[in-house]
Amino acid sequence: MNLKQANYIRTIVREGSISAAARKLFVSQPSLSQMVRQVEAEYGVALFDRSVSPLRLTFAGERYLEAANQILTANERMENELTEIRQENSGLLRLGLSVQRGMQVLPEALPWFAMQYPRVTVKLTEEGSARLEELVEAGQIDLALAAIESTSPRLSYTLIEKETVGILAGKGSSLTEKLPNGTPVTLDAAREDSFVSLKPGHSLRVVQDKLFRESGLRPHILLETDSLEIAKQVALKSGACMLCSDIFVDESVRRYGAFYPLRDYENHRHFYACSRKDEKLPRYAEDFIRIVSRVLNKN
Length: 299
Hints:
It is built from 11 helices and 12 strands. It has helices at 3-15, 18-25, 29-43, 59-86, 99-116, 129-137, 174-178, 203-215, 228-238, 251-256, 283-298, and strands at 48-49, 56-57, 90-97, 119-126, 143-148, 155-161, 165-170, 195-198, 221-225, 241-245, 257-261, 270-276.
């Protein structure tokens, strides 16, 4: 159905006559009458009963108007949605975030974001930080919030929060027996202890493997897991150690163990928002980064 013709027929019905509709549409009455005859000829039916005044739709005309209203309404809805997308008020944000960081960030940030952008859908991918950077580069997600190094030439990075890496140790470990909480240590200080480890794909696993390799340390690995929270609780309750960022030190760590910042180690893996340089982020994605920064700085 021709949208222009459908709109003209609907206007004739609303105005009650071709002459009134012509004035409303800013077209001549003869050209509007000719258009109606063309539509009737195309479908082989009369749309209007011309024997009465004002014009009245025939049964075929009523069915035509019903279809025309549906099509015109759908078209108006589509134009409104495209306008919102063009103005970056709606769309899809493909977000990558680790489970542990998601527990910190999403309950606080998403309500604010949803109030500001109620027509933006967030599609969440939960992976380790190292894997998230790869997904951004591959174009499988738009934005990653991850603990990574800002080294890829293909990505843009926005620093959200700096992290300090240290050893989280449960009570009963050699570290907690020897040193008070917060004492800067070298990795060698935990040589006698077992470790809990995250599986490959996590930023802390990258740091851990590098430090173990450089120090020549090959500790007994009590458990490997994808969950930082499981790793942390197992280490605390079993008197083991794990490499951990200071941002995950909470009341359970203070109650059941201690945290020792690594001495003589400069951490380059901080919490960044990263996206591809060759694809401009929509405004709602940039605002999501700002909301997350405010949430973490408030805490």
